[in-house]
Amino acid sequence: MSWLIAVASTNPAKINAVRDAFALAFPETPSQVVGFKTESGVAAQPMTSAETLLGADNRLHNLQQQQQADFYVAIEAGLDDGMTFAWIRISDGKREGRARSASLQLPPAAVQRLSQGEELGDVMDALFGTQNIKQAGGAIGLLTQHKLSRSSVYQQALILALIPFLTPEWF
Q1: Which candidate, 119, 89, 85, places its Cα nearest to that of 7?
Q2: What percent of the chain has pLDDT over 90?
Q3: pLDDT at 136
Q4: CA 13 from centroid of its chain's CA atoms
Q5: Alpha-carbon dihedral of residues 18, 132, 144, 123, nearest 10 degrees?
Q6: What is the bridge-based pairing of β-strands 31-35 and 71-80?
Q7: Nearest to 4, CA basis, from 95, 64, 68
Q8: DSSP code of 162?
């Protein structure tokens, strides 16, 4: 038996995090992880926890309407009180799990630009002289001097969102 895991994103950092989390959580079950462009229905840069969660919910719902899979995963990154984080939503069509990633304090210069409507990846690229950082280590990698990456922080939250699938007797 092998699982098809559909991810509501084509971002390699998110797809890799999903692949690693499922391999760690379910080492006995091989998985194919495939990313799909999926609309969030919220601003490109969600500015609150509620808006970010809505984006993850919308991505999950839209993905389930578009694709057939064993698991559906949505990761929506956003801001909350000058910090960036992500909401994770996972479903197998019957059961659902969710978790919020660790939050990362952003420099005041980044927060100011974000409040003017720019997206975090673009702001970090401009401030740090990088290119397309959101598909690599992300702001997390830049600000932790690459001790953590976007994928590593997402992986932890993904495993937390898998709790209802790891211990289904409680859910």
Answers
A1: 89
A2: 81
A3: 73
A4: 9
A5: -120
A6: unpaired
A7: 68
A8: T
For helices 108-115 and 120-128, angle between their N-to-C axes, nearest 10 degrees: 140
Among 118, 136, 135, which residue's Cα sits nearest to residue 127?
Answer: 118
The answer to whether the beta carbons of residues 44 and 59 sit under 8 Å apart is no
CB 97 within 8 A of CB 161: yes
Average pLDDT of 83-88?
Answer: 96
Rounded mean pLDDT, 26-40: 97
Per the CB < 8 A criterion, the answer to whether 95 and 168 are in contact is: yes
Q: In the numeric block, which tokens belong to residue 14?
A: 């998110």
The structure tokens 């038996």 sit at 1
Report pLDDT digits (tens) over 120-167: 889 999 999 998 887 777 888 889 999 998 889 999 999 999 999 999
| Ramachandran category for residue 105: left, alpha or beta (phi over 0 → left; psi -120 to 50 → alpha) | beta
User: What pTM did the predictor assign?
Assistant: 0.92
Rounded distance, CA 120 to CA 109, Å? 11
Q: Are 85 and 77 in contact (CB under 8 A)?
A: yes
- As a whole number of angstroms, the distance between CA 171 and CA 69 comes to 21
Percent of the residues in the chain that have a pLDDT greater than 70, as a whole number: 99
